[in-house]
Amino acid sequence: MKRSILFGAMLALLATTSHAHHSRSHLDFSKEVDIQGRVSSYDWANPHIYITVDVVNQAGETEHWLLETNHTLSMSERGWARDSLKVGDLVSARGAPNRNPEKTHMFPAVVVKADGAELWASERRNPNAVPLPPLEVEPRDALAFTGPWTSRVVDQIKDYLVLYEGAEFPTPPRGEREPSPLNEAGQAMLANMNPDEDPFLQCIGSYPLAGGMFPSHLSWQGDNLVIRGEFDGVERVIHMGENVDPASAERSRLGYSSGRIENNQLIIETTRFEHTTWGLMEGVDSSEQKRMVERYWLENEGRIMRAEVTVEDPLYLARPMVSQFEYGYVPNHEFQLYECDVEAANRHLEMVDQHQP
To answer: What is the pTM of this model?
Structure first.
């Protein structure tokens, strides 16, 4: 039973990529532009898919428009595929333009092919979008945490539980906005954030908090728990046992994690972090003084896992930073490695002016 308890509650940890996407502040979502032209390149890559469309403007000159979408996992869920487009295809596109009018760049809401087929990049704006069906997951032992988990199916599982089992999920009241947890040093760092320093540009995920968008998988290695995330295949080891001493462990980006079970919760404490660029949040580093405590527990007969994560770092935080997350159990999900391309990651910077965050 001890193994089952630990085995699943850990999974969320490895999904802790807090900034696994680039800022879109350089895009103006209050405006829309329409273009029509022929595809000259279609790069199916992570973290973003890029499409170049050659457009002839009113002066008869050819403009090379760069269309930037989400990562391949997200776009696959919207019906895109590696062969959705090919060079030479005639397409039209509508989307949010770059705030700099001199840049022929957009985040498309939809790309329409010559035969009328629509490729939507934004489900929220897709008038043809069909709600995802409720997802049935068999009840499990309340302490059986084994298997893959992801935040992406929580709403579907809840829909099933409400429709067929009469479950209730009350909407939490909206409280007042919490003041920033950053101290003066943290606020100064955020104000001077340099997008060139984003670790994601080197395809490096960071794990300051649980709440990542990619599925994670748990397994045992001896007496230790290992969480493997699909973002980059990094494995995080959780050292279980009463005689765990992190003091002699080498500092690292992931730190040294020790775990225990209390009152049916998995509690993980992580210390021994190295100074990490953007290790607290987008634009704010973490120091060697960072300490993270995670609590995981199962609800709804083991089909939903909840997490509460508390981070302390006196160098940059005025008070502890507390976050809460939910994950859904996906028993039939097979591990899919998210292969990040450094060149594709850095291509994003070409569209961001230096004054833009």
So the answer is: 0.80
